[in-house]
Amino acid sequence: QVLLVESGGGLVQPGGSLRLSCAASGLIISRNIMKWYRQAPGKQREWVATITPDNGTSYSPSVKGRFTISRDNAKNTVLLQMNNLKPEDTAVYYCNSDINWGQGTQVIVSA
Fold first, then answer.
1. CA angle 45, 101, 65 (to 5 degrees)
2. With bands split at pLDDT 50, 70 and 90, how would you rate the model's confidence at 97?
């Protein structure tokens, strides 16, 4: 059974930073395509970033240059470093691998 558990969300001021974590069990993250998605209130869930087994990364244009996806293989954890946060980044952030989803972690960017 695959379990993805996100953490690291919270309230931050515009321009601030947060680092989200996704701890995985039941799969080896370094052997799987791992993604982050987010869902803002009243909006559809949208893709944010991807990291592949060969360390390829890709980003939504809305976060490129501000967010960085990475892996900590020793901890079997996927990370999302978010810098220069904007109010429009406010959303619940979800970790994903294939059909598996975490429960999400809330990020609120507000003054």
1. 55
2. very high
